Amino acid sequence: MPDTAIIPLKVLLDDRLSQADLKVYGILCSHANTRGRCSIMREQLETNSHVRCAGQAISKLVKFGYLNLEKGTAGTTFRIVEQSNEAQQRQQTISTFAVEYVSYLSKTHSPKYTRDAERAFHKLLDFAGDITLNQITPVKLETFFADSFKRAQFETARNYRTLKAAFNHAVEHNYISENPLKKVKLPKLPKGIPSFITEIELARIITATANTTLKDIFLCGFNTGMRLSEILELRLNAVNLSERTITVSNTDTFTTKNKKERVIPINDTLYEMLDRRKPKVLHIEGSDLVFGKTRFVPYTVNYVSRKFKEAVRAAGLNSRLHFHSLRHSFASVLLQRGVSIKVVQSLLGHSSVSTTLLYLHVLRGDLVDAVNKLKSVS
């Protein structure tokens, strides 16, 4: 095996490294396998490189990020960072990375976000084939998103955000050197006024619903602004009727959208409903579901969303209304009644106040009142 190797230019130009450091680096590179790893005794290293104190060179190479040390039962293994990164990049395809990334999301993010990532990768695979990550170019991605944007604008935007986060993860793990989506921009999405529901319309929706638990779920959404997934995972031990609070928290089986916990006060309407639902028997435990099909089996998001739409149609209301409109309504009513936008942000659990600002819209009547305040000039 040769005792010399090609040293990357950026290593050669690093003025922090001496000739002795470069000699040691070169010997390690020449003895490394295809994954950038090598095992060599320090005495052998010093003999081959003709450097007396190879330990000092190794320390500097580790300090400056050119070398890693991995200690095992067989002794110390040296890992050349550049070669290891290149090997990882050659081996990581879209499908292998997708499996790894989705597995990571399943432990750190909500089930919905994880499913969104799976779908985004499936669409990218269908378009590009199972190429390696470093073969994904900005031009290829521009074509991919341009094709899908014509058919489904909002889905494309969601896939764009999801894949951009995934590629950032790939950069952090040295699978690619740069996120290819940094240079790709989507067309702007049309922004409509969020749909919202009045208290009278909510009463009509509840009247059109036969299932008592579904009625209570709709009522909870309107009075808390909670996401549907949060309501369906709500446990008895998260409801404190004596302090009149609901704690939206992360559990072993559920993670909030931004992984942050928050506390929502219980108003009178919500208190009466929750007090009615509070079990009167001792064997019910605090971990049981508040709005489950059974004590342990939750309703699915799709089922409740579908039933809400059916109730909207039965009540003869605007077909644009959906369950998330209850969250819009909660925020809108509070903002229209003078509640601080920072307080509303906290209640909704938004990471950024800019997201909360989307709910700050005005009714047509408000616009008319505003214009009528102008006095005519004669």
SSE layout and pairings?
Elements: H1 9-12, H2 19-31, E1 37-38, H3 42-49, H4 54-63, E2 67-72, E3 75-80, H5 81-91, H6 94-108, H7 111-128, H8 138-151, H9 153-172, H10 199-207, H11 212-224, H12 228-232, E4 239-240, E5 245-248, E6 262-265, H13 268-277, H14 301-314, H15 324-336, H16 341-348, H17 353-356, H18 364-372
Antiparallel strand pairs: 1-3, 2-3, 4-5, 5-6
Helix pairs in contact: 2-3, 2-4, 6-7, 7-9, 8-9, 10-11, 10-14, 11-15
List keywords for this structure.
378 residues, mainly alpha, three-stranded antiparallel β-sheet, 18 helices, 52% helix
Overview of this structure, please?
This protein is mainly α. 52% of the residues lie in helices and 6% in strands. It contains 18 helices and six strands. It has helices at residues 9-12, 19-31, 42-49, 54-63, 81-91, 94-108, 111-128, 138-151, 153-172, 199-207, 212-224, 228-232, 268-277, 301-314, 324-336, 341-348, 353-356, 364-372, and strands at residues 37-38, 67-72, 75-80, 239-240, 245-248, 262-265. The strands form two sheets. It has a three-stranded antiparallel β-sheet with strand order 1-3-2. A hairpin with a 4-residue loop joins strand 4 and strand 5 (245-248). The longest helix has 20 residues, at 153-172. The chain starts with 8 loop residues before the first helix and ends in a 6-residue tail after the last helix. Mean pLDDT is 80; it is low at 83-89.
In short:
It contains 18 helices and 6 strands. The chain has helices at residues 9-12, 19-31, 42-49, 54-63, 81-91, 94-108, 111-128, 138-151, 153-172, 199-207, 212-224, 228-232, 268-277, 301-314, 324-336, 341-348, 353-356, 364-372, and strands at residues 37-38, 67-72, 75-80, 239-240, 245-248, 262-265.
